[in-house]
Amino acid sequence: MTIIHLTLKIWRQTGPESKGSFKTYESGPITTAMSFLEMLDVLNERLILNGEEPVAFDHDCREGICGMCGSVINGTPHGPEKKTTLCQLHMRHFKDGDTLVIEPFRSRAFKLVKDLIVDRSAFDAIIAEGGYVSVNTGGTPDANAIPIPTFMAEQALDAAECIGCGACVAACPNASAMLFVGAKISHLALLPQGQPERSKRALAMVKKMDELGFGNCGNEKYCEKSCPKGISISNIARLNREFMRAAFCSEE
Amino acid sequence: MSWIIKVFRSSIGKKYIMAASGVCLSFFLLAHLIGNSVSFWGKEAYNSYASHLHSLGFIIYILEILLLLLFLIHIVTGITLFIENLSARPTRYAIQTKERNWSASTMPYSGILILLFLLVHLLNFHFITKTVSTAELVKTTLSNPLIASFYLLSLSGLTLHASHGFWSLFQSLGINHPKYNIFLQRGGRAMAVLIGMTFILIPLLIVTTDSFLQ
Q1: pLDDT at A138
Q2: Residue-number span of the structural domain to which B17 is assigned
């Protein structure tokens, strides 16, 4: 097992209103089998032993499926590995002596809570506006009662892979949430179950997205590159179509 | 009517405005390029083209007003988007990613450069009392190395702006299809380079060769 030593420049900020700054730490010996978050755990244990405040960071499943973790490592959300969440990023991708600058996701819509933790409830607010289908309760529907072409089911599932981690907003030079909203709109618009609320959903979710202070899409593709689930910008194009259809052709 | 205002005040609506005005401006660019290219056939052909264009009379005035409106819409909406985007991230990152998408990231800046160029270009050739033929005016104006180098710089900026814009406008209008994406992306970039380089050829030929437009 290889041991590496890193220099960590971590954003420290005690609260939403206080002024933050970078603080430099030596990582100590880190095995390359560790995940990025385990490396932070090691640092935090040492900080606690020394009576210092540990670095606050978000995490939950540590399996790359919950969307809780995420920081910006040397300018890239979730770090340098493609299609990888921060918890699934392993230290073998770094070299001994590397300096890592660790910053929180930066966006007006994501308020900083502490250190590397940001409040991403803005995403929940967008979902609450229409990122769902209304289904009447009753007996279990028959399987395959609604025919769905395989390619559409596949496209819907590709969009539904979005875990709402916010890396697209963090990566976007304009802090736009178009990839997130595009994915959420797409996975419902592609399926028959999403049709009744299709137009209302597109208008309401875009309205909410604008109100929350996210930026505008410049088609710069940074979101697609940093998405841990590989959500394609074809979903943004679909969102553009859905919004156009809803705005100009629907009764809503 | 209020729904139209609501649509075009939304983030996506503003992108539709940028894309639609971008399409129209692209056609203007192409028409302007074809007109300019007449200069490659010599002074007489170019002067004849210019006098034919001016003889269109009121049609040219209507087209000019439409063009001015298009430019204003594109510029005002672009600046609005730029300001909104700046305020969407109040705290910048300490480290910028190394994988930059240059043509896309510089859109507002190349746009501002093109706006400056437009003003200089109009002052050079439009808001001027013409005493000589169009070919001579072009030749003498662009013989000034300062003006010629500004034209070269601005037209390079235009190429950069269009190399993102030609593809981006399709994406903003929702035109994205796995069968055509490669043509839209590469075709857009190739078109931008072709148009930009042909425009650049004119000041370049004036500076480097004496016989051009003589």
Answers
A1: 87
A2: 11-88+104-208
Q: Express each pLDDT in A33-49 by its tens digit.
A: 999 999 999 999 999 99
- Residue B174, Ramachandran bin (φ over 0: left; ψ between -120 and 50: alpha; else beta): left
Is B199 inside a domain boundary? yes
pLDDT tens digits for range B115-162? 999 999 999 999 998 889 999 999 999 999 999 999 999 999 999 999
Q: Report how far residue B142's alpha carbon sits from residue A190's, in angstroms, rounded to the nearest whole number.
A: 56
Whether residue B172 and residue A240 make contact (CB cut-off 8 A), yes or no, is yes
B16 chain-A contacts, CB cut-off 8 A:
240, 244
**Is residue B3 domain-resident?**
no
Q: Is residue B151 one of the residues assigned to a domain?
A: yes
pLDDT computed for residue A143 by the predictor: 85
Residue numbers in B near A244 (CB within 8 A):
12, 16, 173-174
Across the interface, which of B16, B98, B101 has its CB nearest the CB of A220?
A: B101
Model's pTM, two decimal places? 0.95
Token pair for B19 = 């894309």
Nearest CB among B88, B168, B172 relative to A175 is that of B88
CATH code at position B178: 1.20.1300.10
* A22, A72, A215: residue with CB nearest B84: A215
Give per-residue pLDDT as tens, A166-190: 999 999 999 999 999 999 999 999 9
Cα dihedral A232, A236, A238, A244 in deg (nearest 10): -170
What residues in chain B have per-residue pLDDT under 70?
A: none
Longest dimension (CA), chain A: 64
**Domains of chain A, earliest start first:** 3-111 (3.10.20.30), 120-134+146-249 (1.10.1060.10)
Task: Please indicate, yes or no, if residue B93 is contained in any of the structural domains.
Answer: no
- Domains identified in chain B, total number: 1
What is the predicted ipTM?
A: 0.94
CA-to-CA separations, A78 to A148, A225, B205, in angstroms, rounded = 34, 11, 50
B10, B93, B170, best to mutate vs chain A, most A CBs in 10 Å: B93
